[in-house]
Structures are given as C-alpha cells and as structure tokens.
Design brief:
Layout lengths: L2 H26 L6 H15 L12 H20 L2 H15 L7 H22 L1
Length: about 130
C-alpha cells in the first residue's frame, strides 16, 4: 500500500469521525434521546470539539491515545444509546452542516484549561 493511499484513507476516516461526532451532538438536542444518553453524549462531544486535549498531544503515545482510542469508543457507545431513527436524521443534518463550517466548543476548552490549572496548583501545593 502506498503512502498516498494510506493518507487518503486516514483523511476519509477523520472526515467520517467528524460526521459521527456532529451527529451525536445533534442527537443530544433531540427530545427522543434518553437522559443518560444525553449526559454521556454531552461529555464526548465537548471533549471532541475542544481545541485543548486533556492529555496534550506532545506527550509520547499517551497524547494521541484520546484521539485514536477514547473518542471513537465514546462515539460508538453513544451511538448505541441513541435511537436509530434519531441517528439517521441527525447524520443527514450533520453532513450538510459540516460541509459548510467546523464547530468548536469554547466551554469544553475552558473546562480542560480549568482541569490543567487545578492539576498544576495541586502539584505546586504538594511540592511546597
């Protein structure tokens, strides 16, 4: 397999992942989705749309673990909790919306920053 086809395949997978994330985001707003699915979906979507990772990407291996493993597993679990009819409707909407814009979650970014500030403050208190 050539490097070009591998990169093209990764790009397709990344685009599909983006559609799935936005699909569950739209499903979160749907009243037909159970509360527990909404709670789980909100966490996955906030983390996926956040421009800041809980585990920074510059940390070897662990930095990409969330992007490669945790987010896809979370999306798969969320999709199992959401009714199929809702998923189908939201997937169509997601494809239309994503062809026009790229969403971000500033609230999720703020939460991740707050977690890092807390960890650093805790580290400083323990060391001193």
């Amino acid at each position: 397999m050539s490097d070009f086809s591998l990169i093209a395949r990764w790009k397709r997978q990344a685009k599909l992942l983006r559609v799935k994330i936005y699909t569950i985001y739209l499903a979160y707003k749907d009243p037909r989705v159970p509360w527990y699915a909404k709670a789980f979906t909100a966490c996955i979507v906030a983390y996926a749309f956040s421009p800041i990772d809980l585990i920074p990407d510059f940390i070897p291996i662990l930095g990409y673990l969330d992007d490669i493993v945790l987010i896809p597993l979370g999306i798969a679990l969320a999709l199992k909790m959401i009714p199929k009819a809702v998923i189908k409707e939201c997937e169509e909407k997601a494809q239309t919306i994503l062809s026009q814009d790229k969403p971000k979650s500033l609230v999720a970014a703020a939460i991740i920053v707050a977690i890092w500030v807390f960890i650093i403050a805790l580290f400083v208190v323990v060391i001193l």
